[in-house]
Amino acid sequence: MRYLAVRFLQSVFLLLGVSLLSFSFLELAPGDFFQEMRLNPQISPNTVARLRSNYGLDKPMPVRYVRWLASAVRGDFGFSFAYGSPVTPLLLVRARNTLLLAGTATLLAWTLAISLGVLCAARPGSWLDHGCSLLTSILLAIPELLLALCFLALGVRTGWFPAGGMVSPGFEDFTSWHRMSDLLWHMVLPVVVLVLGCLPMLLRHVRAALLEVLDFPFIRAAFGHGIPRRRVLFFHALPASINPLVSLFGFSLGALLSVSLLTEVIMSWPGLGPLLLEAVLAHDIYVVVGAMTFSTLFLVVGTALADLLLFAGDPRIRSEALI
Amino acid sequence: MRPSKAVVLPLVCLAVIHTIVGLAGFFGPYDPAAQNREVPSCPPTRLHWVDRDGGLHLRPFVYGLAEPTGETEQCAEVLHGPYPIQLLVRGTQYRILGVLTSDRHLFGVAAPGHVYVMGTDNYGRDVLSRVLYGGQISLFAGLLATLLSLILGLLLGTLAGFYGGWRDGVIMRGVELFLALPWLYLLLALRAFLPLHTGPRQTFLLLIAVIGFVGWARPARIIRGVVLSAKERSHLLAARSFGGSDLYLLRHHVLPETRSVVLTQAALLIPHYVLAEVTLSFLGLGVSEPIASWGSMLATLQQYHILVSNWWMFYPGVALVLVFLSYGVLSNALQADTAKHGVKWNAYSSLE
């Protein structure tokens, strides 16, 4: 229990740190959302000053941070100037879309990486192993930005896939089965880009971790006992190599969110990425802070899940934590 | 540490790429900002050896280009000319590294003809010249940002590892914070507080500062590890007992130990930061038009008709892949070298 409590506290501090960091970045920013209005001769300086005090922008930064924090804890992340609406519902919709994309991609990428990685490590030097290492080298040299553009061009030219977006026009009128297939059809390209973007790193690490474990005497003993090969690989070797992979999981989530931002912008997927980009360009500070905090929340929850998995999978951690 | 053969090949590749990009004015036939409005979105000019009468030319030549006609929207070859390709021709003036002025170009054709080896963009600008000049922005932003990151990482990592105590605590919490965040989100948030519309020179410096600052955490953490282990070596303890000052110890015993790690980190970080610059420019947060960057060139592909029909606008991406490939091979070779020389280094220590 203590282990979990410590992890939870760490996550809370991380979230606090992130929000404070983004707040202080924005504090250093020259100008704010109402900066542009000041240049407009039709709006008097008094009006701008009133607007700023309405939104609390005239208060010093610590006061604003504490007030923001107090409302954020209650689930209210402030007010978007550009959209003229509270930030929270805006973020929730976008975060759901990003989660849909990133979650599917994570699941697929890890499934692929683990199955391929185990098979490669089982027979190092086989044609499968060589093929995989060639594939990872090639994929590592292609930045995701380019990958997304190439796949979009491919999809558009062949007409097999929609040119970006999340749903087709008229989505509201579709039957539920039709809606589902439409959504899936739109998800194919971004998910493929995300999976290909993070697969090489995962594959390399899974293979390396497995190779290390396969050298242990207990694996040889397991083979000696006549346990089937596949069972040894997936039920004996894989759980033993889970420790480095779990720390990789948290790391891969962060990388995935970054790649996801680009992919969302290129494929015009209405996720957190395009929202953050617009907000940055418009100095819409609460949206920026909110999007940063939300993305960190993703990471924290993801890492916590991974830790729980490790807790369940690695007896050494459990005994350490109980002491 | 003597570099192995595997290190030399990618280094040569990189040297060639950087030389060509550095001498963009010489290798590119045109001014990157000069617009030829008559031939926008022109596919790469075809080189001919055989003219329309079947005569063989020893020197490759090109035909003239006609304005795009309404139906195809692509400029066609008209058979006026031929204009033979000439080497070392005089053309527009350019400056090398901001000092030397010259007007010699590696190749070109005589006046009314045009040779666009990589085609033209939608304003009728030569893509080859823009790729080369854009490389100056993208590659050198990556290099300088890496330098900044490594300097920050060395300073803070050494401070944390060598002195320990509360400094170590504070710096390592900062490292965890910066490593926990998705770097692109961080980059955007940091870019948000900087003025968006500035002169190209300021923007370039801002980009370098932002990218370099965001990335300090990873080198700092790794360098701290190396310093921690170096601090306990017996030769260092001996030097300390002879009365060596901290500065002396750092300079002669600790920093040399970090050299191979710093080199490996540089090979990992440079392509990463080149990509960061490309990404920011792609998102419209980088150096503004008419100055080229690989990112802003790729950004034109976000327009539907360009993505569908102007495949040659992918050329900056090809250049990017070449750079990535060279750095990838280089960093692999460096890591293999370091592993051979007994310093503890494996795939995980880049994550830990």
List the keywords:
heterodimer; A: 323 residues; mainly alpha; MetI-like fold; two-stranded antiparallel sheet; 1% strand; globular; B: 352 residues; 3-stranded antiparallel β-sheet; two-stranded antiparallel ribbon; 13 helices; 5 strands; 12% strand; elongated
What does this structure look like?
The complex is a heterodimer of chains A (323) and B (352). In chain A, 78% of the residues lie in helices and 1% in strands. With 323 residues, chain A is mainly α. In chain A, helix 5 runs antiparallel to helix 6, helix 7 runs antiparallel to helix 8 and helix 11 packs antiparallel against helix 13. With 352 residues, chain B is mainly alpha-helical. In chain B, the strands form two sheets. Chain B has a three-stranded antiparallel sheet with strand order 1-2-3, with no helix packed on it. In chain B, strands 4-5 form a two-stranded antiparallel sheet. Chain B starts with a helix and ends in a 12-residue tail after the last helix. The C terminus of chain B is likely disordered. The interface between A and B is large, with 54 and 46 residues.
